[in-house]
Amino acid sequence: MVSNDPSSEVDPETTRALQSVVVSIADQVMESQSFLVASSLLLAGLLSLTVWRLFRTRFDRGAQAVAFSVVTVAHAVFLTTALRCLYVPAAYAGSGKAVAPPSLLVYGTTATYTSIAVSQALGGGLKAAAKGLLALFWAASETGLLLGIAIGAYFFWRARTQVSEGSSIENPTVSFEANGTTLELGALGALGTLLLPFLVYAGIEAYYRLR
Q1: How many CB atoms lie within 10 A of CB 93?
Q2: pTM of this prediction?
């Protein structure tokens, strides 16, 4: 939830305009093929870094980790796309409604394939499969955070440029509510908070390189 500085009130027209802008941009971004391609390539790149660290002894060169990650992500995207192509018509035939497959089914398919791919290609059995799932989870988390930062910054920029000057938002804050407690951060501070996991990753990488 985006709000003004506590000393000022948000005009209802401004709120409606912002909601319209956010919904419009979200539809354009999430449904575009460019977003799917970019997010998949980003995931493959981050996965290659994690796989290179976790399975360093299995690769002679970093390019091999990149190739393995690209193939793994490409096959996972193909499998989940095929799953949707099979599930949606079947669900429509049964209920008369086009329903997307459950997220648990999509994630389960991706996790199962990744486990098999890692254990078969890199060896190591269940332990390697578990490490492969950890690598996938970490890379997917980093991908989500980076996309969240990029999309959030883009939303913020579009909102400030598309809303009329007379009702523009100054000093925006982002509010997080949980268990009756509300935490407010400046928009830039909220985006900066998303970078914390990358600092943790950088610290772990520095530890392994310098020890």
Answers
A1: 8
A2: 0.67
